[in-house]
Amino acid sequence: MAQIDKLKEVLEVALLTSSQPLSIEDLTKLFIGKTDRSTIRMLLDEIKNDWQEKSMSLVQVASGYRFQAKADFTEFLMRLSPDRAPNYSRAVMEVLAIIAYRQPVTRADIEKIRGVSLNSNTLRQLIEREWIDIIGQKEVPGRPSLYATTKHFLNDFALKSLSELPELNSSLTQELSDSKVDENREEIQEN
Length: 191
Prior knowledge:
It is a single chain. With 191 residues, this protein is of the alpha+beta class. The protein is built from 10 helices and 5 strands. Helix 1 packs across helix 3.
């Protein structure tokens, strides 16, 4: 029993001190002896339960596991860093939503869905933030770039996968499905 407690402590320390999420693979490197993945998963579940009533929680995101402050403490933590997180314009967030829900998409697809031309700074901001990336080109004349979200996007929005994105309301769903962007999914050619 003491050995299990020690393993849990090592996992907690690694997760609490890491600046990025840690995968199961990363966590197995902590131990010299053979500690299997199922044991680590079991210990992570125990740690998650242990922290349930505390100020932080253990969450799983696309890149692995991390501790994060519970939402109740956000306003207090914001006071520590007067440098505000960047406020993104509505246009930037609309483009991010289109890419997240309809990926892979081209710039033309985004413009068609939004009904307005796209400012090149919008895509640049999202690429610099590492929320989207170019994943290939569409096999049509001009070979436009195809955009998709990244693991960094999933991590920042505390998602394990795109399937955890919230449901769209019916008018947005219709608007996105009318855009016929699905054809891009078959036409990706890797860089």
